[in-house]
Amino acid sequence: MKKIYLYGNWKMNMTKAETEGFFKGYAAAVEPFASDLGTGLEVAVFPAFTSIWEAGYRSKDMKNKPIIGAQNCYYEPKGAFTGEVSIPMLKEQGVTHVILGHSERRHIFGESDELVGKKVKACLDAGLTPVLCYGETLEEREGNRTFEVMERQLRAAMKGLTPEEMGKVIYAYEPVWAIGTGKTATPAQAQEVCGWSKKLIAEVAGKDVAPVVLYGGSVKGSNAKELLSMESIDGALVGGASLKPESFLEIYGAYKN
Ligand code: 13P
Q: Is the distance from CB of 227 to CB of 254 less than 8 angstroms?
């Protein structure tokens, strides 16, 4: 069986108190899969900035603790950038992974391909793992522009990286029309794009690079098995279903059983 990456993007949810509540149930939810952790399963949660410390604190003595990540960062190490959070600040909180280029950042907050690329590079330079999100809107899909849009997003994010660095990025295909809508890409649609992405990344980075590609968009226990069984899908980037430890781990349970 392949290794499954189960990553939970909490978005603007989960106060400090709610984060504490999540970790009260986490150990029991992950316990049935404890022997898979490492080689068969990797779990990460990405709380809001203000709950990162709490997540680290509540999980620090846990045997099966998840990776703690952030949902964004700025590429400059410090300075006059009101409202932004730097990579050194995140590292100090124990963060090792950072979600970048999420469609909500691109579409609600106007982040450009170029800005996302600078953040990817800055994270890699600092030894953090970027979780690079990309994907098309419904309008782009219906206009047959899916692959053109994604190629632009992926090439911009990989610009200036060495092949080795390209291999360290975790790629997450998230069709915008499937995020938070309850509409999931069919397993065949998700497989098509994830397979295509791997080919494109190998074309840019070279054949020695075997990229990890996740699918995100309304993943939950009831559709996880079909999606995660697809050959080119290495895991899931989960929004809504990651807010409770039971519904989050149920995704891996559905795949395994
Ligand atoms: P949902 O699982 O809530 O659709 O969110 C997906 C997502 O955007 C994860 O980054």
A: no
Contact at 8 Å (CB) between 62 and 26? yes
The answer to whether residues 114 and 80 touch, using CB atoms and an 8 Å cutoff, is: no
Q: Is the CB of 238 under 6 A from ligand 1?
A: yes
Considering the entire predicted model, what is its pTM? 0.97
Total domains in the chain come to 1
149 Cβ contact partners less than 8 Å away, ≥ 6 residues apart? 136, 137, 140
Instruction: Please choose from 11, 181, 184 the residue to mutate so as to test ligand 1's pocket, defined by most ligand atoms within 8 A of CB.
Output: 11
Domain assignment of residue 165, given as a range = 4-256
With H, G, I as helix, E, B as strand and everything else as coil, classify residue 30.
Answer: helix
Name the β-bridge partners of 132.
Answer: 100, 171
pLDDT tens across 20-61, in order? 999 999 999 999 999 999 999 999 999 999 999 999 999 999
